[in-house]
Specification:
Layout (H helix, E strand, L loop, with lengths): L5 H9 L2 H33 L14 H11 L8 H27 L19 H28 L2 H25 L6
Helix pairs in contact: 2-3, 2-6, 3-4, 4-5
Amino acid sequence: MLVKDKVIEKITEKTDGATADRLCYMFLIFISGCFVGWLYEEVFYTVTEGMLRNRGILYGPWLPIYGIGAIGIYAMKPLKKNPFLLFLLCIGITGVVEYIIGFAGIKLFDMRLWDYRGLFLNINGIICFRSVVSFGLLGLFFHYILEPFSEKIFIKTDKTLIRAPCVAVLSLFIVDCVMSALFRTPITY
């Protein structure tokens, strides 16, 4: 028998179990997006630049911009019956997220976290055709293949087995955010 974590008990006391489960599911989408984005960038830039390095602003293996994009893409679930519109909105959402975060990095922190200058149809080197179309295609893959499969597993799994890891990973993520804000200097262009 599993001993419930005190934090998990407080979360489920203050919200009904369904709300806690929904928040956990959303967090899993976010953190999965963060990790897959980090993994994608590590592989892509290892192949193109020939070196492995943590490209993110955090110490851990996650890039929050991809998590934000994943949540934005997930929000388009009601449009799943119209693949073309879904594709266009995935492009729009991820393009806007990427532009806002890239623009804020440059203007607020004097940091260019990525540079698409020189790539086809780029806007200020912050977004480009390749990135938004890739995100649009990934959005379709997410909606039609990945998310339905993940949702089935989530529904069938005992939620007490999911909540503790969610709280643990969330705690790690928060500690990483604080430590990175205090001590990490991100790679810039």
